[in-house]
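Lab channel / #folding
Pinned by the channel admin:
"Please post every new chain as: sequence first, then the structure tokens as a reply. Keep commentary short and put observations after the output so the thread stays searchable."

First post following the new format, from NK:
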Amino acid sequence: MARQNDVVPPSSQQALQAQFVTISEEEAGQRIDNYLLRICKGVPKSHVYRILRSGEVRVNKGRIDQLYRLVEGDMVRIPPIRIAEKSSAQVAPGAEFTIVFEDAHLLVIDKPCGVAVHGGSGVSYGVIEQLRASRPQAKFLELVHRLDRETSGLLLLAKKRSALTNLHEQMRDGHTDKRYLTAVHGDWINKRQHVKLPLHKYTTADGERRVVVQAGGMESHTIFNLKRKWQEFALLEAELKTGRTHQIRVHLASSGFPILGDDKYGDFPFNKALQKGSATRGALKRMFLHAHQITFTHPDSGQQMTLRAPLPAECERFLVSLGQSVA
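Reply from TO:
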């Protein structure tokens, strides 16, 4: 009898017969449609929902609907599924990243700039696919939250479904504290400044996600603390009170202080000059936004944890090139 890890790719010859899977403790609690979408990689969503509606997927020999939540020990029948295999499909190469913390429940890494957290939107694979490829023995590994591709720093992954659920609840209820370091262009004055601007998310014609300040948008709140200041630059710590898409980037750009190197909301001519450097400062070839600290309650022990990731070397070098700060 097959376990979940034994499920064969739906496009393979082996998958031309029904498979029977016993749900483990880690898989319990999720909806049957989400479970199927995760294990049937490459199968269109419409096809997954069709086999659910038709009753071809069975749990404990009975019909269920797409809202059914799996229970440990459930026997799931997955019908034969055949799809055209894409010859150009890229398999994620296994990779490990700098580990900040790891135990049986959590994995926290320091994600480098330029690496997506997951595949999609023109990216074949990301951190989660690479980690799964390098840890084939892992029964469960899921992203707790996301970081923009251009943002570096602390990224939490759950190694148990119970940990994922618990951390999502903490984030939803505002019981986690995320801090980012960012450098901006402009004459920043206040030591501590609250920015509360409503954000509206939309998708461009070419499928790119964008966010704009707009009345009626999602309530959004960021606190910025001034860490260091130069004549035309400032190093800020951003304290997230809400977790909207591109929140820090749009709040700063809309306040007249674009993040250095931001290719979506930044000062594009200035960014181009930054990439080359000058006689008075070094070059900066990335967005200066780094998730440097997070505080949360461990989902199993209940202990409060604060984890930190130092500024990447390229960001430190740029700050050093600015010389002595004035504040």
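NK: Residues 161-172 form the longest helix (12 residues).
TO: also worth noting, The longest strand covers residues 177-185.
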